[in-house]
Write a structure and sequence with these properties.
The protein contains four helices and 19 strands. The chain is of the alpha/beta class and 302 residues long. The chain folds into two domains: 133 residues, Alpha-Beta Horseshoe (Leucine-rich repeat, LRR (right-handed beta-alpha superhelix)), CATH 3.80.10.10; 110 residues, Leucine-rich repeat, LRR (right-handed beta-alpha superhelix) (Alpha-Beta Horseshoe), CATH 3.80.10.10. Strands 1, 2, 4, 5, 7, 9 and 11 form a seven-stranded mixed beta sheet that branches. Strands 13-15-17-19 form a four-stranded parallel beta sheet, with no helix packed on it. The chain is elongated, with a radius of gyration of 32 Å. The protein starts with a helix and ends in a 7-residue tail after the last helix.
């Protein structure tokens, strides 16, 4: 009798334990829906990266030197790995004043070729020669209002760069500064007097209105801009360099203010054929535009 009672009790205990275990291991519908939500806890990542873009890169990402007056910093090299670059306004307690020659130079296979955006802080007055040359992936550049000078070839071969706002106080653009970029539009500064040689050649500009105050457009300044359809010259223009708008195969319209009585057409061409003229190869120019150019002194070919 005792043995049978013990066996009954044992079976009861085993059955209860199994039932309890089964209840404990049955996943609820809530637990199934919660688990996947925890996996993409990276849905917060966009917020973190957005915040990161508002934060300057570490000072350690840059090699630096002093300006001539020893009162400011020159960025001499970017050593970081971030493709979105925000230059700090100060480094080691001194204000950043210049982006030096080849500071972000995109040599073949370098990390700088992958940079997609750069924000330059207020206080910077100068971007040096070839500073961003070859940054093939660079799509966006934010320039400070304090910028006065952009050096030769500064953004040459930045193929992905399709627009740029040049600050109102900019006084100087170097030759070939934006050559072979993807520029389709430009916000022009008011302080320019010269657009130098090849500054915007071989770009994707569609319509160009040269700002008042510009007196000279240098040789080959807009050469090979195959998408360029119209150009408006300012009343202040005095000189158009050789091949300034040559081989602009879509160019149909040149607008010249009536106040312009004469333009000096410089047919000299260093290292080239002196017979090549400002609008040679721009075959689609309307007769009205051709006549306007003849009236102000152009004798070259179209």
């Amino acid at each position: 009798m005792k043995k049978s009672t013990i066996l009954v009790l044992a079976f009861a205990l085993l059955f209860g334990f199994a039932a309890c275990s089964k209840r404990n291991y049955t996943p609820s519908s809530n637990s199934r829906s919660t688990a996947p939500q925890n996996v993409p806890a990276q849905s917060v990542a966009p917020m973190q990266s957005a915040a990161a873009t508002d934060t300057p890169n570490s000072e350690a990402d840059f090699s630096v030197g002093l300006t001539v007056d020893s009162k400011g910093v020159v960025i001499t090299e970017y050593k970081g790995k971030a493709t979105s670059v925000r230059i700090p306004a100060t480094i080691q307690g001194l204000p950043v004043k210049e982006i030096g020659k080849r500071a972000f130079y995109g040599s073949s296979g370098s990390l700088n070729e992958k940079i997609t955006s750069v924000t330059i802080p207020e206080g910077v007055t100068k971007i040096g020669e070839e500073a961003f040359w070859g940054c093939e992936s660079l799509r966006a550049v934010s320039l400070p209002d304090t910028l006065i000078s952009i050096g030769e070839r500064a953004f040459n071969s930045c193929w992905a760069l399709d627009s740029i706002n040049l600050p109102a106080g900019l006084k100087e653009i170097g030759g070939l500064a934006f050559r072979t970029t993807g520029l389709t539009s430009i916000s022009w500064p008011t302080g320019l007097t010269t657009i130098p040689s090849s500054a915007f050649s071989n770009t994707k500009l569609r319509n160009v209105t040269i700002p008042e105050g510009v007196t000279k457009i240098g040789e080959t300044a807009f050469e090979d801009c195959e998408n360029l359809a119209s150009v408006t010259l300012p009343s202040t223009i005095r000189i158009l360099g050789c091949r300034a708008f040559a081989d602009c195969s879509s160019l149909t319209t040149i607008k010249i203010p009536e106040t312009v009585k004469k333009i000096e057409f410089d047919f000299s061409y260093v290292g080239g054929d002196g017979a090549k003229n400002a609008f040679e190869g721009s075959h689609k120019l309307s007769l009205e535009s051709q006549a306007a150019l003849r009236r102000v002194g152009y004798t070259g070919s179209f």
